[in-house]
Design goal:
Number of strands: 20
Order of helices and strands: EEEEEEEEEEEEEEEEEEEHEHH
Helix content: under 10%
CATH topology of the largest domain: Immunoglobulin-like
CATH architecture of the largest domain: Sandwich
Strand content: 35-45%
Shape: elongated
Oligomer: single chain
Length: about 260
């Protein structure tokens, strides 16, 4: 149920959920009304858990006058949307993560302003990271909603005694903060030390990886791991174990996790 209709009460430890199952509004036992993404990521709340215990509400009521009110066990209002005068209104938790009070004519009179509107792409960026003495790496790129990830890796070695063998991993994270995919290991060309003429001490390369479309659709950010290391195999395998053990990710992503294999 995604709606709290006029005159209906949301009691302590009860909730409503968006129709897509991604968002939940919970009237918590501590007196706080909280909007969660993916079960455990709080994105909005009334802050009423901070009240003295005797003043904390134990229910949220969508009053017949159109006002959403939090009431104490004694019936004292301690928080409200102040939308009275809009009789017959209802509270709706939308698939866009926004909590809205609609009047009986369909017009909105209040919202939590928590709309999640993902952009056309997700930007990948980690700049000028020191990965060793006088060794730096930068990774920039884009995760497209189709699932394709493209990144440019710049490696620079100002070290006079040792080479730089840069490696990069991309970890896709959803809006709830859950890791949902990890790229293959990208290995940059070896960058020689400054006095070594065998190879260049700096340079840039482009790498691509094609993730399932569901990963591109649910990705909210991309974390970049970059280091001067011989292998990211163990880290990648650990990340895959964590992703597959997680429960609070979109079903569409779970359905394609069989394609995510260890090295």
């Amino acid at each position: 149920m995604d709606t709290l209709n006029s005159g209906v009460t949301l009691s302590a430890n009860s909730s409503i959920a968006s129709s897509n199952g991604k968002y939940t509004l919970v009237m918590q036992g501590d007196g706080n009304l909280v909007l969660y993404a993916f079960g455990n990521q709080a994105v909005w709340d009334t802050g009423t858990w901070q009240l003295p215990v005797e003043h904390r509400p134990d229910r949220a009521v969508m009053q017949p006058d159109g006002n959403l009110v939090l009431l104490t066990p004694g019936g004292v209002p301690v928080w409200a949307t102040h939308t009275e005068g809009n009789g017959g209104s209802r509270l709706v938790l939308g698939d866009d993560r926004n909590l809205v009070i609609y009047r009986s004519d369909g017009n909105a009179v209040w919202s939590s302003n928590t709309v999640y509107a993902p952009g056309a792409v997700v930007t990948i960026s980690k700049l000028n990271e020191n990965v060793g003495y006088a060794k730096t790496m930068s990774t920039v790129g884009t995760l497209y909603r189709s699932g394709q990830a493209v990144c440019s890796v710049y490696t620079k070695n100002d070290n006079w005694t040792g080479g730089l063998r840069g490696k990069v991993l991309l970890l896709v994270v959803d809006e709830g903060g859950h890791a949902i995919w990890v790229s293959r290991e990208f290995a940059a060309a070896t960058r020689c030390s400054v006095p070594d003429p065998a190879c260049a001490s700096y340079g840039q390369e482009t790498f691509r990886d094609d993730f399932p479309e569901a990963v591109g659709r649910y990705g909210a950010r991309v974390d970049v791991y970059q280091a001067d290391t011989p292998s990211y195999r163990d880290l990648r395998n650990e990340l895959i174990d964590g992703i597959k053990a997680a429960g609070d990710i979109a079903q569409e992503v779970k359905d394609v996790l069989g394609q995510l294999t260890k090295s």
